[in-house]
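Below sits our specimen:

——
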Amino acid sequence: MFEEKDALIKVCGITRQQDADLCVELDVDLIGFVFHPESPRCMSIEAVAAIETPGLMRVGVFVDHTADEVRRTMQFAKLDVAQLHGGQDEEFCRRVGKKRVIKVFWPEQYETKAGLEADMERFAHCSRFMLFDAGKSGGGSGATLDWSWLAGIRGVKTWFVAGGLGPDNLGQAIRSCNPCGVDLNSGVESAPGIKDEERLRACVRILGGDHRPM
């Protein structure tokens, strides 16, 4: 059974069983699959269902799907949580299920930290996790956030930081904003959807080897 912990690791953009196996070996917490057709990491429902991920929380990344499409995909692809990248509202999140949503925010959309915190409060009762991504929409671009801007953010939920994180900048990101978790994707790849084993292992070492607290 999945338990929420500090310093969670999510690896997103998985397209191959061998990369999923590496995530299991490294004892990451969440593993993500992209269902956005415009992404080079986009996967079919059937392909995701065939990838085995024992012990990991399975996440689907959605942009333009309807709530019913998200729910059907979650059922057939054996997903635990939907990561919503399309600016979906509270009702959409409730239809998917409040314990089944990672709500994505783009801090660059906000002029003040208070504005971001207000939107976080709005979604506090219809999401399980929250995630801060780089840019003003979308995701998977490899761009990075101004992590220091997030320092001291009033977290109403367990929140992840994403955006071009890899072994070269992960330590700086953690020191700058002290996130509850990190989302690794393009920064640990040799090509879109192909994870680089050395880079992923390096990130886990930066987080403390066995990253989970005792």
In short: The chain has seven helices and ten strands. The chain has one domain: 8-206.
